[in-house]
Design a protein that fits this description.
The chain is built from five helices and 18 strands. By secondary structure, the chain is an alpha+beta fold. It has an 18-stranded mixed beta sheet that branches. Helix 1 links the parallel strand 2 (20-25) and strand 3. The longest helix is centred in the C-terminal third of the chain and has 13 residues, at 229-241.
């Protein structure tokens, strides 16, 4: 097998060393699942994405945290598409190019929009949301180290491909007070129906719908994720479903608490009151190119 091309791409930012870094491993057909997990552990980022060929799409993507595979992930999808464009594996066709991706949750499209100066905005489509289990806010507040009164109901698992627990707080200023007990939070995750916990608040001072967020996945080996695409999609579905914003678009700011600020653009696609899909968009920048030496040489 020898050496495989690998990139490190910062997603949901146009500046290096911000947003959320993902390792992108190309030509990964011959890797076993065990090798993929070992590589993700070696990279020690929130996620590593492995790109292979597909019989039903343009590419297949598989996502691994340092501890486990997950069915859908946002920032490594943005990172992978960005890397594939830079490596000329995707040829751009005009101002908007569509690429079809096979994920573990199914086949979904992504779009690449060329903006001023050649800047690329990558838009991933996520699955229609599922609204799952609700949890007592007292229990969740306790493991997050906040007051129950600071948390809004419902505290609920929402999935647009990967189930995330949505915890809405009354004001963005309260996000700084979140001090999770990571061991207890991992235990709650293992007992529940969610992969990770997304804590957010809507900004009442913004003229357009805007949210600030933090994200925690200790059971997957990620204490705090800088900028989370899959959970941003679920968050968008949550706020539209519960009528918390007057539009179907939302901008999410995340990563400030870990000095990796990033921005996610969210578009909730609905018809006759039914959410049919969620689109999450962002920019990306490559910070590293190299080769992964599978046999150590």
């Amino acid at each position: 097998m020898g050496a495989l091309p690998i990139l490190q791409v910062d997603a949901f930012t146009d500046m290096p060393f911000r947003g959320n870094p993902a390792a992108v491993v190309l030509d990964a057909e011959e890797l076993t699942e065990r090798q993929m997990q070992a590589i993700a552990r070696e990279m020690n980022l929130s996620e590593t994405v492995f790109v292979t060929s597909s019989a039903v799409a343009d590419f297949r993507l598989r996502f691994f945290t340092p501890r486990k595979e997950i069915p859908l992930a946002g920032h490594p999808t943005i990172a992978a598409v960005h890397g594939l464009v830079e490596e000329e594996r995707i040829r751009l066709a005009g101002e908007r190019t569509t690429v079809i991706l096979q994920l573990n949750v199914g086949v979904l499209p992504a779009e690449i929009v060329r903006g001023p100066g050649g800047r690329l905005l990558i838009i991933m489509t996520q699955r229609p949301p599922e609204f799952l289990t609700t949890y007592p806010r007292d229990e969740v507040a306790a493991v997050l180290g906040v007051k129950p009164a600071d948390v809004c109901d419902p505290v609920q698992t929402v999935s647009t491909g990967t189930p995330q627990l949505m915890v809405r707080m009354h004001d963005p200023a309260l996000l700084a007070s979140v001090r999770p007990d990571f061991e207890a939070l991992a235990g709650l995750t293992e007992q529940g129906d969610f992969f990770s916990v997304h804590v957010f608040a809507l900004d009442p001072r913004s003229p357009r719908p805007r949210a600030f967020a933090r994200h925690f996945a200790p059971a997957a080996g990620v204490d705090e994720d800088p900028v989370t695409g899959s959970a941003s999609g679920a968050m968008g579905a949550y706020v539209v479903h519960y009528g918390l914003i007057s539009t179907q678009t939302l901008v999410a700011e995340q990563g400030h608490m870990v000095d990796r600020p990033g921005r996610v653009y969210i578009d909730v696609v609905s018809r006759a009151g039914t959410i049919e899909a969620v689109k999450v968009a962002g920019e990306a920048v490559t910070v590293l190119r190299g080769h992964l030496l599978i046999d150590g040489r």
